[in-house]
Design a protein that fits this description.
globular, 273 residues, alpha/beta, 8-stranded mixed β-sheet, binds zinc ion, Metallo-beta-lactamase, Chain A
């Protein structure tokens, strides 16, 4: 393939919500794996990929009701943020759901024309016996899961079983670990293949110290997932995008001066780690 045939996409991270600034550090690590005092707030993102005549949204985020119920700080309705980036939710044809947790799949109905890409394992996990257990279902909202089931009956889900290239330069990889069928997305950009790791690791620190975030379905898969993501990024840390790390917004350049909560991941970071 000559260079002009290699697809290059623009990739945006859109920060739509955050937590209390005083969120204690230990809430972000597996029990016993962090004994420091101090605060470690967490940000919530959706992502968008555009180029080659396509616009693809990765995860939908949540709205006001979930923010209130779970005491999160909603900075923007996720669809407002997309519109600020020039993306009209009604026109989006493809949404990748990395998994079905409330903060990733809380806005399914915001994309009435889209097909949704989901792993078989994630649908099985979110609709099967594991949801009987309160600690496994806590990050899910029943309403989001039933909406996903309605999409199945409307033939609007594209199921994936493992790793798949869904468009030239856009690949999905099943990681699991954090949820039954968590998938990450790898996107070709001018600066290399960017890995949107979603909740394979919430913070870079989870990956670097091999100290997982405490919401885990399969700990072994989660630990293997750190290795897998690093390999997928060719071991370049600047190509690895954590799912909830406030550093993402601080390190990458803003889309423009009016939109500090939207950053360009297809450009090199402007600050070092
Ligand atoms: Zn999650």
């Amino acid at each position: 393939m000559t260079d002009y045939q290699v697809p290059h996409y623009e990739v945006l991270a859109l920060r739509y919500a955050t937590t209390d600034l005083n969120r204690p550090r230990h809430e972000n690590f597996f029990p016993g794996m962090d004994l420091h005092d101090g605060a470690m707030p967490l940000d919530y993102f959706t992502w968008a990929i555009r180029g080659e005549g396509r616009v693809i949204v990765v995860d939908t985020g949540f709205g006001e009701a979930a923010a209130k119920a779970r005491k999160r700080i909603l900075l923007h309705e996720p669809t407002d943020l997309l519109r600020r980036a020039g993306i009209e939710p009604n026109d989006v044809t493809d949404v990748i759901l990395t998994h079905l947790h409330y903060d990733h799949a809380g806005g399914i109905s915001d994309f009435p024309k889209a097909r949704f890409h989901l792993q078989d394992d994630e649908m099985r996990f979110a609709t099967g016996r594991n949801m009987r257990h309160s600690c496994l279902r806590a990050p899910f909202e029943c309403r989001d899961v039933t909406q996903a089931v309605e999409l199945v009956f409307a033939d609007r889900i594209v199921f994936h079983d493992g790793d798949e290239t869904i468009f030239p330069g856009i690949e999905l990889f099943r990681i699991g670990g954090h949820s039954g069928g968590l998938q990450v997305v790898r996107v070709a950009t001018k600066r290399g293949k960017v890995v949107l790791a979603s909740d394979a690791f919430h913070f870079n620190e989870n990956r670097l110290r091999r100290a997982p975030f405490p919401i885990v379905y399969h700990l072994g898969e989660m630990l293997e997932g750190f290795d897998r993501c690093e390999r997928l990024a060719g071991n370049d840390p600047d190509l690895l995008i954590p799912g909830h790390d406030p550093e993402v917004r601080l390190r990458w350049p803003a889309l423009d001066a009016d939109n500090p909560d939207i950053v360009r991941l297809d450009l090199p970071p402007t600050k070092n780690e």
